Amino acid sequence: MKIFTPIIINGLAVKNRTVMAPMCMYSAQEDGFVSQFHRVHYPTRAYGGIGLIIQEATAIEPRGRITDHDLGIWSDEHGLGLKELVSMVHMAGGKMAIQLAHAGRKSRNTFEPIVSSCNQRFNDKYDIPKQLSISEIKDIVAAFKQGAKRAKEAGYDGIEIHGAHGYLINQFLSPFTNKRDDEYGGSLEKRTRFLLEILTAVREVWRGPLWVRLSADEYIEQGHRLEDTLKVIDLIKHLIDAVNVSSGGISPSVPKVFPGYQLAFSAAIREKGLLTFGGGLINSIEEAEQALAKEKADLIYFGRPLLLRPFIVLEAAKTYAPELVIPQYERG
Ligand SMILES: Cc1cc2nc3c(=O)[nH]c(=O)nc-3n(C[C@H](O)[C@H](O)[C@H](O)COP(=O)(O)O)c2cc1C
After folding, report:
1. d(Cα 68, Cα 62) in Å, to the nearest integer?
2. pLDDT in tens, 269-309
3. I want to staple 297 with a disulfide (CB 3.0 to 4.6 A). Which of 149, 159, 253, 266 is the partner?
4. Neighbouring residues of 282: CB distance < 8 A, sequence distance ≥ 6
5. Shortest-distance Cα residue to atom 13 of ligand 1
6. What pLDDT, in 10s, does the model give residues 228-244?
7. Atom 10 of ligand 1, residue of closest alpha carbon
8. Hey, how many other C-beta atoms are within 10 angstroms of the C-beta on 156?
9. Helix or strand or coil: residue 288?
10. What is the CATH number of domain 2-329?
């Protein structure tokens, strides 16, 4: 099966095509530090045979957290726990990437006022954000770069920039949330400037596998559709190795979903010559295999299924690729 074949992402050898999707566990200690929960949670999925784990949204500054219990990477002290986490995943045979994130107006941290591309709130359950000034934008770009530097020091195998789900980068990308009239707003080129500057800054400290998570379709009339996302990708393509394809989140509106509902976006982005991570309601290795066979994506991510079934890959490997079952679990 193709799902059990290795793949190389900018020099990184991943043993199979399965990916653990980034999922916030809201289980960090106060101040964003790794907890015992993470030390069990991530290595368990690596022992379960997942090829590449993408760590949950990890905030590059305190006000960029979704909640007070998100993981953070805004100080050197954070690096210690993260480094330990990476080495445990490596010991369990997996590769580990980090999702660097800033929640912008979707932050509900209780410590600091929140910011966005504009001063419009998500809905009445959220605070009104402050519109970032140009110099504050530059500071956030620098914080992403610093986060990438710390990720490198911690030993991560890949870096994902969170540009999806209506968080800060998405708030700049989308015409629905970006009403600025300076060089960071207006045309699609200007709305992409923030992301482009982040990627350029990250590339100054990180040559390894780098990709972006994007909401390919925002499911609202005033937002991005697939064709807009493809134009964004044209502007950033030279800086990235892949796209982690998702959708929605810029507004509270929710689309009709079905197994593989985002795979058509992934297939279209793949035509740009980039590797893609596809997924969304993929519940079995067989479904994932079909998506790969139809060339919808190069790797398949699993989110919710892995919360309750961390061994979903090994269970299938028992039948389709028994050599992948680690000796300790052979009798399973
Ligand atoms: C509990 C939970 C937390 C999530 N946190 C993140 C996150 O930190 N970053 C992100 O990009 N997506 C996040 N997502 C979205 C998942 O990565 C994934 O795209 C989504 O769940 C669809 O895949 P699935 O149907 O396999 O679960 C989260 C989803 C869940 C269920």
Report:
1. 8
2. 999 999 999 999 999 999 999 999 999 999 999 999 999 99
3. 266
4. 259, 260, 288, 291, 300, 301, 302, 305
5. 23
6. 999 999 999 999 999 99
7. 22
8. 26
9. helix
10. 3.20.20.70
